[in-house]
Amino acid sequence: MTGRILVVVKGAGDLATGVALRLHRVGMAVVMTEVQRPTVIRRTVAFADAVYEGRSTVEDVEARLVDGPEAAVSALSEGHIALMIDPSAETARAMGPALLVDAIIAKRNTGTLISDAPAVVALGPGFTVGVDCHAVVETMRGHDLGRVIWRGQAAPNTGIPGEIGGAGAERVLRAPGPGRFAGSRRIGDLVAPGDVVGEVGGVSVATTIGGVLRGLLRDGLEVTEGFKVADVDPRADPSRCLTVSDKALAVAGGVAEAAGVLLGGFRAAGVPLDPAAGRRRSE
């Protein structure tokens, strides 16, 4: 990894994976962090699955689960992304990254500091530029998706899933109560309205629309009532279950743009840039 920019990405869900892929592809050395038992549902496009399987491949890029900085450097040197179980990112931060990206998507700041790295970028609501980070990238679907915010905050969380193929809240399946999840279908399966895709505590979870099952929680995880356990894409194209989404690509592009400005890559090429000329969202 000699000469490569070291990046720490907090979180390894589908949006974080999109970010990691783009930064990896432009030559950065990417270390991701996760909790002990990730609860992502878009597991075919999330490097978080490496926590359970030891490795995870998304679009021909492999992330490997490592147990510390030395193993991370080894994985990076072999051309992979390194993933640590490091909820606070304390171990990863100690490696001295030039860029830290908070991609946890918790809708609030769970501990990221603007001093964590020379360049700190956060995704979505819950962060204030100049206080928590150096830049924020908008994650809400719509006109500003992927836009870099240099002042203020991202749009507030509405709690309503963005529309895909004309479907919004109805595409997301939630736990009917507390208990252990057990799936009965697989990601990529085509489903019709009313199909049972799993159960929580013995209570069935059924679809309300037809399409392709693009997200499904891992078996055996404990959930609370209302927890997201599955996602149906009404466009019914199974191939889309294997590639990062348009949303993830847009957000990742925003991170790459912010990194270029903050790390001075474009300035080195002689292109004058003024971060304040970017998106201005009033506080």
Question: How would you characterize this protein structure?
Answer:
- With 283 residues, the protein is of the alpha/beta class.
- The protein has 2 domains: 6-158 and 246-278, 3-Layer(aba) Sandwich (Rossmann fold), CATH 3.40.50; 169-234, OB fold (Dihydrolipoamide Acetyltransferase, E2P).
- The protein is built from 6 helices and 18 strands.
- The protein has helices at 14-25, 50-53, 69-77, 90-93, 246-262, 265-268; strands at 6-10, 29-34, 55-58, 61-66, 81-85, 99-102, 119-123, 135-137, 148-151, 172-174, 179-183, 190-191, 196-200, 203-206, 211-216, 222-223, 228-233, 279-280.
- It has a 10-stranded mixed β-sheet, sandwiched between helices. A 4-stranded antiparallel β-sheet has the order 10-17-15-12, with no helix packed on it. A 4-stranded antiparallel β-sheet has the order 14-13-11-16, with no helix packed on it.
- β1 (6-10), α1 and β2 form a beta-alpha-beta unit.
- α1 (14-25) packs across α5 (246-262).
- It is globular and about 50 Å long.
- The termini are far apart.
- The relative contact order is 0.16.
- Residues 266-283 have low confidence and may be disordered.
